[in-house]
Amino acid sequence: MKLSDLEMNIPARITAIDLTPTVVKRLYSIGIFVGSGIETRYGSYVGRPVCVTTEHDCTFALGYRLAEKIFITKE
Question: Which domains can be identified in the chain, with CATH numbers?
């Protein structure tokens, strides 16, 4: 399942990130990496940013196209 498809307030875990190593490194620096817990705070509409909270209580807005390349499983 893609992060962009996750409903609000449903805990999930990142299983894969299909992005360039540079982008993956940047995501890692803000606490978004394979194996980390994540939750969507605001609904994602096609083309709009996705607001997520990491398991370390950090909240970020990710572009919709970026969120489409982050794969998750619901917990």
Answer: 3-74 (2.30.30.90)
Give the pLDDT score at 16.
Answer: 98
Q: What 3-state DSSP class applies to 12?
A: strand
Identify whether the C-beta of residue 73 lies closer than 8 Å to the C-beta of residue 38.
no
pTM of the model: 0.89
Rounded to an integer, the average pLDDT of 15-21 is 97
Beta strands in the chain (DSSP E): 11-17, 37-42, 50-54, 59-62, 70-74
Q: Where do we find the tokens 């605001």? A: 42
Rounded to 5, what percent of the chain is helix, strand, coil?
20, 40, 40
